[in-house]
């Protein structure tokens, strides 16, 4: 299960302070030492850990908390609030275009789950948001990627716009947008090339697509299992092309949680969805508060 180690450690720490009728500064410091250790072990970015501990300590050592009737509970609430804040606070909804179609650019490194997520998102948009999505195969470097999207499209009975591998991604997007208008698609999901690492060509291609049509959302798909690497990838993509949100995949695995807890704070971009499995219905909106509750038990 995801976050297992972190949850276990934090819940252990919390249980020590929970019912205390009196909490001293020393108690809080002790607790913060353990929380710090738990976060580092969960592969949370060091700067993020430091800021988090500072914020919780400042609030928890205040007189109003220590002198309250339930200081233990108060401290736990502060930890939960700050954990929720760290992950973005409120759930961040999809930004739909005022004038359809809404254009969503899907970016990410190969293997992160980008194509799968594109299919899942289209499925969710149809089922939960009553939209009529068009999938666009703009990964011209891997014929297998186009085929994969077409297979997903078939499985979901959703149309996939593809022009093979000989046409440039920008031209594919241009024609796809025309097609979407003709066929009254209100959301266009563009599956862009996934590379093994971030390179100039990839970034240029994304910039060219953006120059043609500014997308309403640019979702970066990252693999939560890769921990701090996922955070670095998010940071680089954001700097190079500007992302509007993150989809964190493979949260059904035994990820330690570092990516989920660091990405928002490092990139200032919200985690919008999480992938919870390989099936087409395994995509959920990300709720920071629910996640914090799950971690703290
Ligand atoms: P891409 O190269 O980024 O397009 O990656 P793919 O979409 O091909 O996904 C790579 C692998 O990750 C595939 O085997 C997917 O089934 C798997 N995958 C994607 N998202 C998830 C997820 O949320 N959970 C799990 N367990 N597997 C996932």
UniProtKB/TrEMBL annotation:
Keyword Nucleotide-binding: yes
Keyword Methyltransferase: no
Binding residues for GTP: 108-115, 191-195, 249-252
UniProt domain SRP54-type proteins GTP-binding: residue ranges: 270-283
Principal location class: cytoplasm
Catalytic activity: GTP + H2O = GDP + phosphate + H(+)
Top EC category: hydrolase
Key words, A-Z: Cytoplasm, GTP-binding, Hydrolase, Nucleotide-binding, Ribonucleoprotein, RNA-binding, Signal recognition particle
Documented EC number(s): 3.6.5.4
Subcellular location, record wording: Cytoplasm
Family per record: Belongs to the GTP-binding SRP family. SRP54 subfamily.
Domain free text: Composed of three domains: the N-terminal N domain, which is responsible for interactions with the ribosome, the central G domain, which binds GTP, and the C-terminal M domain, which binds the RNA and the signal sequence of the RNC.
Function: Involved in targeting and insertion of nascent membrane proteins into the cytoplasmic membrane. Binds to the hydrophobic signal sequence of the ribosome-nascent chain (RNC) as it emerges from the ribosomes. The SRP-RNC complex is then targeted to the cytoplasmic membrane where it interacts with the SRP receptor FtsY.
Subunit structure comment from the entry: Part of the signal recognition particle protein translocation system, which is composed of SRP and FtsY.
Protein name: Signal recognition particle protein
Source species: Viridibacillus soli
Gene giving rise to this polypeptide: ffh
Range of the intact protein held here: 1 to 297 of 451
